[in-house]
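worker-03 picked up job from queue 'complexes'. Input manifest follows; two sequence lines, order preserved.
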Amino acid sequence: MSATANPLISTGRRARRRKLTGQIMEVLATAAALVAAAALAIVIITVAKRALPALNTDFFTQNAAPFGASGGGIKNAIVGTLIITGIATAIALPAGVLLAVFNTEFAPRRLADLISLTLNVLSGVPTIVIGVFIFALVVVGRGQSAFAGSLGLSIVMLPLVARASEEVLLQVPSHLREGGMALGATRARTVLTVILPTAVGGIVTATIVAVARAAGETAPLLFTTSIFVGTTVTTDPSHAMASIPMVIFTYSEQPDPHAQQQAWAAALVLVAIVLVASIVGRLLSLRTRRQIEQVR
Amino acid sequence: MSTVSDPEKRIHDDASAAGTPPGAADAVQSQSHVKLGELAAKHTPLPEEQREPVLRLDGVTVSYSGAPAVCDVTMDVFRYQVTAFIGPSGCGKTTLLRSLNRMNDLITGATVDGSITYHGHDLYASNVDPVEVRRRIGMVFQRPNPFPKSIFDNVAFGLRLHGMKDNLDERVETALSKAALWDEVKDRLHKSALALSGGQQQRLCIARALAIEPEVVLMDEPASALDPIATQRIEDLVGELKRDYTIVIVTHNMQQAARVADMTAFFSVDVKDGGHRNGVLVEFAPTADLFIRPADSRTEAYVTGRFG
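worker-03 finished. Artifact:
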């Protein structure tokens, strides 16, 4: 090496290889990210392209057309999905939040770990299994009902709500707990009046994400609220009720091109709901994080 | 935890480096032995026969999962006096403080041996309700920890909790006035407490503790996360509060102890065979005596800056 060589510039084979490895990794990682983004874009574009011809106000304001007839919309299915996921949320939200509270505030460490593991497994259970389970438990002998569908969806939602709430509760700094206790509040009282209000934003976010997920689930509804749904708006959860995922499922299987187009349109509505909910959830969670950082 | 405490330390060090407070720093302790004595001599503790113990500690050992953190402490906390716990890091002064209102109950594995009595009643008797203990013996923490609620709701929190809901507005005002915060916040009582400055937040936490009319207020390094001016205000406040309250204050700042405390307990770290370290009470005396005529060589070494 000559005396004038810059010691900060590496030369030689090893340096070249190191540089090349770095560049290859960067390209691969970027490509992977692009593939993920492209997959979403392709799904949305494909669905939108096929759905647009069927999308009009009638699609949202009319009930399903009788079998074989053209026209009609999915008003009854939209109402059905709202009711079914609404009931599911009413079950999963309190249960999930209480579970998270128990896990973070009351459970001994090992029990908490066990419960976390259980929730992880539960969130990995295929939804078709949940559907069959609810079918055997509730539907057999009683018949299908929107309520049975809600029960199935609530099992899908429970681990999502519980795990996400748990994470938010853990972020609430412990000095707030101590502050409550030092004023003579019991543990439960501190949770109710200090911890939960601080974490509420994060819990709402978790719920929105879980609702978005549940709204699109088909398998739990297939066994529980899919037949005799009728073509008018029904609000009685003790009977089977139409829902957007089931519309997509049944219409897409029909040979009628009009029905297939309606299936695409319903799919677009579903994707839009999930997308909007995810974005709202994301924005809210950023806000919550800032709020919690303030009290840290 | 360490990530939390580091910035505080930095703030404290910055405050020390700025040098503005009349000795809010440990840094100047080497030549300050005499000065500490002067500061301490400014207030006269009650003569021995007039001291009335509120809390009596007898052979108190606090352990975490069986490992003692502070051992065999015997001392009294006297009514309407400010008692300071000083000593190097790890000497168990905060641990001991937290055992005085059963805050250590919240830490799994923490146990208290020996006896701590409050007006003769065992704090740790099985039928004692820790909630009642904490209502009578309040606590202010190292870092201001206002709830993410309005200023009013922060102070009203304990009042509502304990059913002291008559004259709620009046009680809140009284507490904020006692904490020397009322004038600064009276026009924005229903704004978020988090918008207050650190010093104001800490005074809010003091107001919150005072609102439920405790007899004793425990303060765990209440000014260590604050700037020098806010520190001064807290110290002034402590001086005023002792007319109505009994105060125990933990500080690693000897100047602060000399300025505010009537009685001072000096703790040190004992290293046992096998390397286990635990805190011990070395000396407990009127502050002026402790700084001017320390009875124990370890105290002398510490207050003259030769150690710690």
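worker-03 released lock.
Chain A is about 75% helix and 0% strand.
Chain A has a mean pLDDT of 88.
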